[in-house]
Write a structure and sequence with these properties.
Layout lengths: L13 H15 L6 H12 L5 H16 L8 H15 L17 H7 L4 H14 L4 E6 L2 E6 L6 E4 L5 E3 L1 H12 L10 E2 L1 H17 L5 H11 L8 H12 L3 H15 L4 H16 L3
Antiparallel strand pairs: 1-2, 1-5, 2-3, 3-4
Helix pairs in contact: 1-2, 2-8, 3-6, 8-9, 9-10, 10-11, 11-12
InterPro entries: SirB1_N
Family: Belongs to the UPF0162 family.
Protein name: SirB1 family protein
């Protein structure tokens, strides 16, 4: 459905959207959620031009890149160097500050096409290519900057896909964390990030992009509604969902969602619940 005043991406039609959301929910609830599949479903729900052939082509590209890695190059450091040489040096995957202003930087199919993206999406490329080749790889959600890790905690090697896969020293990682938070690096920050946490962060980034562009509340709404399909999502997403529905003129649905959120938080914060119910009442009044 095209909007005469908004630039692409345009969303898929309702039937396609319903099917994509069902697949996303099933994958998110599976025993071992597939990170690339979830990212491509986010892409298809955000960008209606991504059809099944496009999804298959993106998966095939990840397979192709994995096939170009050397067979068992060695320990964690050798793996990090091999993936960096392939993706960062040979194929030019990296990020720049300008990529933070582009929605495509959060969509895996576009990152594979442009070879540019946010740290977390470039990390997804590193993860999926290296995993397919048998590397001991995982995401590491440093505060403010996502990277990838190779090997066990005792021999961990970090690489920064945003910087073309540069292998990080301990000092590099410390500086990244201090720069983002002002606080020192804590060992807990270096633990592997589960796939659903990665997906939730990607959806958070899409919502942040849309929040700075009120005319793209359609993009924000789709990202929130996908995030609500992830098990154990934050309760506050319900509040954000209700606000977006009201903002887009869906006053009854928005008021119902706000009231649902008020019921959730009433036990722990009665005054906050009362304020949310007032917001719901204001939304209903807009119907008159």
């Amino acid at each position: 459905m095209r909007h005469p005043y908004l630039p692409p991406p345009y969303p898929p039609p309702p039937e396609r959207s319903a099917e994509l959301r069902q697949r996303f929910a099933e994958e998110a609830r599976s025993e071992r959620p597939d990170l690339s599949a979830l990212c491509l479903l986010i892409g298809a729900e955000t960008d209606g031009s991504l059809d099944e052939a496009g999804i298959d082509a993106a998966q095939a590209e990840l397979d192709r890149l994995a096939g170009e890695l050397p067979y068992r190059p060695g320990g964690p450091h050798a793996w990090a160097e091999a993936v960096s040489r392939l993706l960062g040096t040979r194929y030019g995957f990296h990020g720049t500050p300008g990529d933070y202003q582009r929605l495509e930087s959060s969509l895996l199919h576009e990152v594979l096409r442009r070879r540019r993206g946010l740290p977390i999406l470039l990390s997804v490329v590193w993860l999926e290519v290296a995993r397919r080749a048998g590397a001991p790889v995982y995401g590491v959600a440093l505060p403010g900057h996502f990277v990838v890790g190779f090997g066990t905690a005792a021999e961990q090697v970090l690489a920064d896909p945003f910087d073309a896969g540069r292998v990080l020293t301990g000092t590099d990682a410390e500086l990244l964390v201090v720069g983002a938070t002002g606080a020192p690096l804590h060992p807990s920050m270096l633990e592997p990030a589960p796939p659903l946490e990665v997906v939730q962060r990607i959806l958070n980034n899409i919502r942040a992009w849309a929040a700075a562009r009120p005319e793209r509340s359609d993009v924000a709404l789709r990202a929130v509604e996908l995030a609500l399909l992830i098990p154990s999502h934050p309760a506050r997403l319900r509040y954000e969902h209700g606000q977006l529905l009201v903002q887009r003129g869906q006053f009854v649905a928005g008021a119902e969602e706000l009231e649902y959120y008020a019921d959730l938080i009433e036990v722990v914060d009665e005054s906050a619940a009362r304020k949310v119910r007032q917001e719901a009442g204001t939304a209903r009044a807009k119907l008159n």
